[in-house]
Protein: Arabinose 5-phosphate isomerase
Organism: Hevea brasiliensis
Amino acid sequence: MGSLDLPSPSAYPELDQNTLLNLFKSQQNHLNFFFQNLDLSQTLSFTQTLLNSRGTIFFSGVGKSGFVANKISQTLISLGIRAGFLSPLDALHGDIGILTARDILVLFSKSGNTEELLRLVPCAKAKGAYLVSVTSVEGNALASVCDMNVHLPLERELCPFDLAPVTSTAIQMVFGDTVAIALMGARNLTKDEYAANHPAGRIGKSLIFKVKDVMKKQDELPVCREGDLIMDQLVELSSKGCGCLLVIDEEYHLIGTFTDGDLRRTLKASGKGIFKLTVGEMCNRNPRTIGQDAMAVEAMKKMESPPSPVQFLPVINHQNMVIGIVTLHGLVSAGL
């Protein structure tokens, strides 16, 4: 195995804090130039065009602009808007077949003279798609051959050589994501609809998951009868991983709960007398409960509510019959 030769601490001069601060301030000034000079009428027309789209909104670009175009397309998709990224190279080798006359193709290019995009334009036009260029250099070739152009004012790149695309890509990203949020508002996207598009995220889970989606049921339930001796139920108490027993009658109606904490307190208070005590004598007959159709996040709030937090909630139906149990560990494991 070879070793990686890392530069010694003295290989480069120490970075000066003021130099770094000045770079951030310079970038802020460059971004302010963009905000102060952006043509809002152009931006409004562009946004309205996307809003009125009857097909798919495709984004394309090369290099860093391509990364931005791809990211913006993913943002729109997450908002429930039909969008996608079309690689200009792959488009010329078959992928352009996805374009239709109902679609919009947005081309991101700082210079507006990117050869790959210019080669794509006539092919996209032949498919009948509506073309929009988003560029930062006035009088560029791409703007002259597209149906619409949006100019993103660029003072200069932060790069000392004015070459590395670090400011131009920043304003592209700001522009695209801001337009995306404008579309989100215009389409009246609700929080529930947004969550439905993010089922694996915490926001989505908190708005989608119900107690019945995360509760234990049937054979997973730690149940016992009130006449059972405490010491006879130690295996049931510990084996189901809930830290409690659900005390039920013959018809599965909930009578109360008995926790491992109750076991410790009973043992301390009764000593050897615990061998004669039944679960019903020591159980909590007024436990917090919840229904299966309640939101899972509501169950978590109920567990954490005063006077003291609990680690589980019995799940009952309208007849007070036990149908499940939801635990704090289960909620956390589900990503809530």
Summary: The two ends are 43 Å apart (CA to CA). The longest strand covers residues 130-135.
